[in-house]
Amino acid sequence: MNRALDILDLARWAPSGDNSQPWRFSIPSDDRIVVHGHDTRAHCVYDLDGRPSQISIGALLETIAIAATRFGLMADIQRRREAPDEAPLFDVSLRESPGMGEDPLAAFITERRVARRPLAMRALAQDEREALEQSVAPGFALRWFEGMRGRARIAGLNFANAQLRLTLPEAYPVHRDVIEWHATTSEDRIPDAALGASGPSLATMRWALTSWRRVDTLNRYLAGTLAPRIEMDLVPGLACAAHCVIVAREPPRDIDDYIAAGRALQRFWLTATRLKLQFQPGYTPLVFARYVRDGVRFTSDAAAMRRARSVSERLRYVLTPEIESRAVFIGRIGAGAPARARSVRLPLERLLREG
After folding, report:
1. Residue 286: is its pLDDT beyond 70?
2. What domains can you pick out in the chain, each with its CATH number?
3. Distance between CA 215 and CA 223 in Å, rounded?
4. How far is Cα 82 from Cα 104, in angstroms, rounded to an integer?
């Protein structure tokens, strides 16, 4: 392999929403990479403005920069301004950097994973908090929700948000297509063993997701959202060390702001992994709150719109309006064993384009 291939083979492990991997690569020369980004707005209700995909692409770019240091290289990354936001292009120039050591986070790129099951409730140590806060500086800060009261506030928010997600007609095809059943790993989806649900709940989900009619019937008459919301949102939301919100200095406005947020997120997540802490994103309340705030019409269902407004109001109350407008990511963190079941990645050869 040349150096660019070596770097990309490591960087492809960057996180992305539902393991969507919204990127492809071309390698014009050994010292140059072109990242071809794309978003999933055409088919994913959680990405209608492209912001979640842009955060994922930012995480990828940070991972490229970290991976390059393993080979004694500095990665200079520039976005092509003429490319549309829904298909951004980035030029990565690799140059020798004598005396530069490997970034300490490089060793944890392939170890980082999502934790969806309950975690230890011991409080974070001061040195852990400081390392995590430093990882997102200087452009971002962390807002912590700790103790039973703090965790309960975010767990309650996620419990309410999950009802919206699980009853939203436009979310059904996303949920149907993103799960790989009877699997512990998946190259391009989420294996069902990694969802954090019990066997009976998984069996019910598998039966229901074969059609929207089944999902709707289960939700309307059999309290179909209750068990998964308790197992996958409420209990894990309480069973952790803390919830944390990554907060920008100014409200994010454009693609560059969300790319920067993704880069900060990846350094935070890799730092957590280095500290033997586990992390689970809880991003969708921010998505629906932004839709409500920006007037994005994401559904034709009146009940879903009411629930989205309720989630938005609750998020603003929990975070405060000043923080809510600057929040770029949210998740829960705590000590625990790394998840055995996990999303893996497409082989590098399937991510490469000619050029």
Report:
1. yes
2. 3-112 (3.40.109.10), 126-342 (3.40.109)
3. 11
4. 35
- Integer Cα distance of 28 and 166 in angstroms: 44
Strands (E), 56-199: 73-79, 89-96, 140-146, 179-180, 185-186, 190-191
3 state SS of 225: coil
The amino acid occupying position 294 is D
**What's the whole-model pTM score?**
0.97
Q: Is 221 helix (H, G, I), strand (E, B) or coil?
A: helix
Q: Quote the pLDDT of residue 199.
A: 93
Reduced to 3 DSSP states, what percent helix, strand and coil does the chain have, rounded to the nearest 5? Answer: 50, 20, 30
Is the backbone peptide bond immediately before 138 cis, with ω within 30 degrees of 0?
A: yes
- Name the β-bridge partners of 79: 90
Residue 338 CA to residue 72 CA, distance in Å, equals: 30
62 within 8 A of 261, measured Cβ to Cβ: no
Residue 76 has which token pair? 């200079």
Residues 6+ apart with CB under 8 A from 187: 343, 344, 345, 346, 347
Question: Tokens representing 219?
Answer: 């939700």
**Cα atoms in the Cβ-side hemisphere of radius 13 Å centred on 50:** 19
SS3 119: coil
Q: Kindly tell me if the per-residue pLDDT of 224 is higher than 80.
A: no
